[in-house]
Design brief:
Blueprint: H1 3-14, E1 20-25, H2 35-46, E2 49-55, E3 59-62, E4 74-79
Antiparallel strand pairs: 1-4, 2-3, 2-4
Length: 84
C-alpha cells in the first residue's frame, strides 16, 4: 500500500483523534434509501461517511452500487471520535 493510504487505515483502525470506525443500526431516515442517497444524510446527521452495509443475510457489502438499505442493516461508518 502507498504510505498515505496505510496512514489513513492505521488511524481508522486505532480510532485516532480525528476519526474512528463505528458500526451502528440503520436509522429510520436511511431505511429504504439507496446507499448513494444515504451518504449525504449520514454526513449531515452524524458527520460520518458510510463505508459498508452489513446485512444478516447476505453479509458485508463495501461501497455497493444500486443497494437499498433495509431495516436491520448495520452500517459501517467513518466518523469523528466525538460521536462515541
Amino acid at each position: 500500500l502507498e504510505k498515505g493510504v496505510l496512514d489513513v487505515l492505521q488511524i481508522m483502525l486505532r480510532g485516532g483523534d480525528d476519526a474512528r470506525l463505528m458500526r451502528i443500526p440503520a436509522a429510520s431516515e436511511v431505511v429504504g434509501a439507496s446507499f448513494e442517497e444515504a451518504l449525504p444524510i449520514l454526513k449531515r446527521t452524524r458527520d460520518a461517511i458510510l463505508l459498508a452495509v452489513d446485512r444478516k443475510v447476505g453479509g458485508l457489502h463495501v461501497n455497493p452500487v444500486h443497494f437499498i438499505l433495509q431495516d436491520g442493516d448495520m452500517l459501517v461508518l467513518l466518523g469523528p471520535k466525538r460521536n462515541s
